[in-house]
Amino acid sequence: MPSTKELRARIKSVSNTAKVTGAMQLIAASKMRRAQQQVLMGKKYAETIQSLLINLSSSVDLETVNIPLLDNREVKNKLMILLTPDRGLAGALVGNVNRKALDVIKTSSEKYSILSVGRKGFRFLNSREQDIVNQIEIPDKPEISDTLSVSDFAIEGFLEGKWDQVDLVYSEFINTTSQTPKLQTILPISNKEDNEKKINDYIYEPSDYEVLIELTPKYVRSQIYQAILEAFASEHSARMVAMQNATDNANELIGELTLDLNKARQETITAELLDLIGGISALEGK
Questions:
Q1: Is residue 258 within 8 Å of 14, Cβ to Cβ?
Q2: Rounded to an integer, what distance in angstroms lies between the CA atom of residue 64 and that of residue 61?
Q3: How buried is residue 260: exposed, middle or buried, by Cβ count under 10 Å (0-12/13-18/19+)?
Q4: Positive or negative, the Cα torsion across 117, 119, 124, 129?
Q5: Nearest CA to 165 among 97, 74, 50?
Q6: What are the residues whose beta carbons fall under 8 Å from the beta carbon of 210, sequence distance 6 or more?
Q7: Nearest Cα to 229, choosing from 140, 152, 114, 168?
């Protein structure tokens, strides 16, 4: 068994670790609440603009007009927008998203170019010699203006014919303890939806076609922004849970080490008592 000095040093070290992980848990929890609120508000906007786009598409004859972002063409090249955290200590979240992206790339018959948003995804795919065409970092509290560089890069490349399909790979926020890697195609825009959800009794000015032309890039921007919000909410939730588990494990280890320390102290006291009794017996024998 280690000495009492070694056990005290280990207890102090684990206690300091528990303080750090506990502080990180509180910080992540604060960021998580804010990120979850943004996700919920963003979902309402994304769903509304999607519903409007579907209704507009149903009222425009797409065979006679050209809506570039709705153009379904032969897919030869694809762009993947990979959304990952900049930092670790988020449990299995980073590994799950990176593995999802790599699986999608390996199973695709078409070539993927990668737009990496976040350092973890960039390092993972760069070390595996994937074609990373750009790497963009997003602030911790993103506004839609902070994400325009990502959406405009995807839209411009699609219109120029650099890629025929744009996919998003990110961690979808389900709840605090559940985040799922997700693959979502955002370009070309799909305008298919259940007929029950179509509402055709709108009057558009100046015309259905002109409104649809203006709406399609806004829809892509809203989808990318929403995915980034979900990725941040997933990161903060996963980090909070991971730090909570680390703090609990540290406290449990402190309890075990304290028990070992008490045993070691008791053994030391017992040994000292035996030595004392032995010495007294020796003196009495004389």
A1: no
A2: 6
A3: middle
A4: positive
A5: 74
A6: none
A7: 140
61 sits in the region (left: phi over 0; alpha: psi -120 to 50; else beta) called beta
Ordered per-residue pLDDT tens for the chain, 286 residues: 677 888 888 889 999 999 999 998 898 888 888 888 888 888 888 888 888 887 777 777 766 777 888 888 888 899 999 999 988 888 889 999 999 999 999 998 888 999 999 899 999 998 988 889 999 988 888 888 899 999 999 999 999 989 999 999 999 888 888 889 999 999 888 766 544 445 556 676 777 778 888 888 998 999 999 999 999 999 999 999 999 999 999 999 999 988 988 888 888 788 778 777 777 777 776 5
Contact 233, 29 (CB under 8 A): no
Query: Hey, what are 200's tokens?
Result: 């055709």
Nearest-angstrom CA–CA distance, 199 and 208: 14
Measured at the alpha carbon of residue 193, what is the angle toward residues 183 and 107, in degrees to the nearest 5?
25
pTM of the shown model: 0.82
- Cis amide linkage into residue 188, ω under 30° from 0: yes
Do β-strands 132-136 and 111-117 pair in parallel, antiparallel, or remain unpaired?
Answer: parallel
